[in-house]
Amino acid sequence: MPKEAVVHLRYGPYSALGLSVEHRTFRLEGLQAVLTKDGHHIILEKIDDWNVVELVVNEEKVFQCDIQELEFGGDGKLDPLCEEARIAVLEAF
Of 2, 27, 42, 53, which alpha carbon lies 20 to 30 A from 60's? Predict the structure, then answer.
C-alpha cells in the first residue's frame, strides 16, 4: 500500500470506569498518531458494535481489535496493537 492511504478508523462505544457507554476517542489517539506519522489520512467513523475498532483500507477490513485493549492516550509508539495495525495498513492492497 502506498503511503498516504485513506484509512477509515471505525470505532464503537464502550464503557470507561463504569461510566455510561459512549463513543470515545481517547484510546484512539495513539493509533491515529502512528498512522498519521506514516502519512495516512484518517477518517473517523462511529459504528454501533460495542468495544470494536476496525481499520478499513480500500473497502477492505485490514485490522480489528477491542478498543479497551488500546493504550489510553499517548503517541502509540509503545503500544504493540498500534504497531500491528500500522503493519496491517502498510500491507493492505
Answer: 27
Fold assignment, 6-90: Glutaredoxin (3.40.30)
Instruction: Provide DSSP, 47-86.
Output: -SSTTEEEEEETTEEEEEEEGGGSPSSS-STT-HHHHHHH
- 13's CB contacts (< 8 A; 6+ apart) are 21, 22, 23, 24, 46, 48, 50
**What is the residue type of 11?**
Y
Q: What pTM value is reported for the model?
A: 0.92
pLDDT tens-digit series, residues 41-60: 999 999 999 999 999 999 99
